[in-house]
Structures
1.
Amino acid sequence: MVDNGFSIKETDKRLERLGLVGNDITAILVTHEHNDHVGGVARYARRYDIPVWASHGTGAMIKEIKSLQCFNSHKTFNLGGFLIEPVLVPHDAREPTQFIFKANDLKFGVMTDVGSITQHMVDVLMDCDALLLECNYDREMLLNGVYPESLKRRVMGDWGHLDNRQAIELLERLNVDNLQYLVLAHVSEKNNSHDLVLDSVSRAIQCDRAWLDVIDQEQGLAWRNLTTNIKSNETLHA
Ligand SMILES: [Zn+2]
Ligand SMILES: [Zn+2]
């Protein structure tokens, strides 16, 4: 499990939709200490006796969690059958990391809560087989929206969040030909719309809108299967 901002009851409900229970969770990885990512971690870990993993900097912010273990954010480590590569990212937290998961010659990247694109992000996300990517806001909607000025500046800043155009810029710098799934996530309910995300991303990478997944905050996302033998652009442009 990566992050958890939900109550125990809500988490159980969401896992049940995926055919899982709390005892199935091997570990909870925490990307950073913001409440939407860590708010539910301590109680869920305690309830089901789950180890929690975070960078040393994030760990210092959540050190009340008894089962906390820290990883070196410059080193890959093994957990639950995955090789996990932490990716340090520019975001306004203590030592925020996103993750690359590798198994069976497949590579899955998770990249949310980043204010700007770094060469390091481009290097490590290259040639993913699946990618979960933040499309947090549409610039016009944010500028004309209800957020106070200080919050607008924070979100748009280099340590805030990716907007739709930045997400597209990142995709254009990556090789997306191997992608079996592109999941667009951390989409603001106030400053973005699923339609805008689908329109702009599908146009930019020339794929069908229906091929993309946008995570709905209520519905979440069902399982996606990655296959090892598809190594061409046949899924993206199918
Ligand atoms: Zn967040
Ligand atoms: Zn955050």
Note: Residues 32, 34, 91, 93, 113 surround zinc ion (ligand 2) (CB under 6 Å).
2.
Amino acid sequence: MGLIPENVIDEILLKADIESVVGRYVSLKRKGANLWGLCPFHHEKTPSFSVNPSKNIYMCFGCHKGGNAINFIMEMEHMNYPEAIRFLGDLYGVEVPDTRGDSNGDSGREKIKRVKSLLTETAKFYYKQFNDPEIGVPARKYAEKRALDKQTLDHFGIGYSPLDWDALREYLEEKGYTEQEMVDSGNFKKSEKNGKIFDRFRGRLMFPIFDSFGNIIAFGGRALGDESPKYLNSSDSLVYNKQNHLYALNFAKKEQSKQLIVVEGYMDAIAMHRAGFRNTVAALGTSFTDSQLKLCARYCEEVVFFFDADGAGQKAAIRAIKMMLEYLSKLSGIKIRIKIAKVPDGKDPDEYIRANGAEKFAEVVRNALYVEDYLLERAYNDNFDEVKGIDKGRYQDDVCLYGSWVPDEIKRSTMANEAAKVLGATPGAVLNRMNSLADSEGARDNLMQAREIARQKENDLRNRNAAASVRPDEDLNAEHADESSVESEKTYAVNDTATEDEIKLFAYAMSLGPVLADQKQIAIEDVLRPDDFSGDSMKALVKSFLSVFDAKRGVSYARMSDFFSRVTINGSAAEDILYRECTKADLAEDVKVKRDYYLGYLYKIRIIRVKAIEEALITRRMYASSQEERDEIDGKLSNLSEYKLKIRTKIEGL
Ligand SMILES: [Zn+2]
């Protein structure tokens, strides 16, 4: 191995003062000439780890580890000497000449060097294909469609893999690379039939994946059309392990920002860089790993995550957060703040930037929530229903589970305080539950699993109910379809519940018949609506009712019975319950009495509903993250109280 020049090492030790190097990992407090903190190398409760800034060294009186900044990084990051130098050079802006693989006879090193140069050749090949007047046409068309300009394409070294099975193989053969070297690069597959190797990527837009030092170590390929998979990556190889790298980190680290933004895909990362957020990286696998978190911690103090807004993305968010917090609690050595950002309207960052511009997006980044606040919000929103309010049992499960992941005692107890407010419990009781979960990894994982299974069941039930619920006509359900798509992110069980009053209201509506359409007797706004009902079965029945309602004849029981037969109410056959109530309603002496009963139930239900919505909004206001959101909620609240007053007046007039 070639030697790194002495003057470079001196410069690094000069710039990388021990206080700031160690300070990235350990909280230090000054006491006399030295700084003290908890040792990152052995477990302890009182500090015996000291840093001496004037001598530029550290020393632990517990485990007796000590040395300069380079030794510290070697120990902390599990790096060898040249790696640690390179790492510090990166951090403190000292150029370290590349002396790796300078022929010391190390065959492993030599092999890696060959594969890396093969990968660089491969990138050149793809780049050439992309710019070929004929071959590159489909790729260039696609790039244009995705608004990737020439400068961006060149900056990220984007290329094109032609449709051939062995164009790349032939090219590399000509350059003198062996078949083994090609296999080692992760860019080839072996035929089961004849054992020959062929190109892994065909007809794809090719993104070189760099390590943090800027060496090409792998490729990602994006399909140009709908072919599957949409994204294909090099397999793990001699030089690449997807868990240990972050896309675009080589560019992002140059920003010297204290913050890194992590998005899900490389297209998103590129879009972010183009929009000026050059401190963005992308994870390279399906889930974020602890090695990637550690990598982030090398270059920044704060990571802001963007997870996809869909169900899978949200589930991934919780899993990634669990991994990160548990990892951080095991490793006292890493200090990093984790934030979670949400793109409004469930868009991905790329879409949002294109629609709203970079300024607006910067706001989204600024509004990212600290992970603890995000978890509090998730626990609340995931278990909140506009009608039924908060499901306290589930909320408690989620929030205690999430709290148990948080390593920082103060943050955990703050979470317990917030949760206690929602639960109406004492903060101490909530904190106890969090602490006992924190102490038992088994209990924690069991609860996590139970909650995931429960959510899955609720989803299944919801889907089944949506499929089985009354679907007399498509148009009838159009409105319902809209609702469900808006709320599809929430997971709560479809329910067939109905209150006594709701059943009576529906029965009187059936019984009133054409009177319901007579505006002299029943004002238009007093006609029942699906929204007056809390359960999905009743909502569906009311929709069916309104769709078959005839102003002259009312509704036909025969037609309605068709709908009744398809749903349950409170677990029983809807026919049984509704026929009984309708028969009772039919017994009323005259229309006036019937009408008053009908309106009485309607107003009562509407008042109860408004109150529930109000309560929910008030709690939500407590969780609002901006003044804008609070103002919006206040607006809704004032509308609701007006509406309530109106109904009260009507009740008095009955
Ligand atoms: Zn120690």
Note: The pocket of zinc ion is lined by residues 39, 41-42, 49, 60, 62-63, 65 (CB under 6 Å).
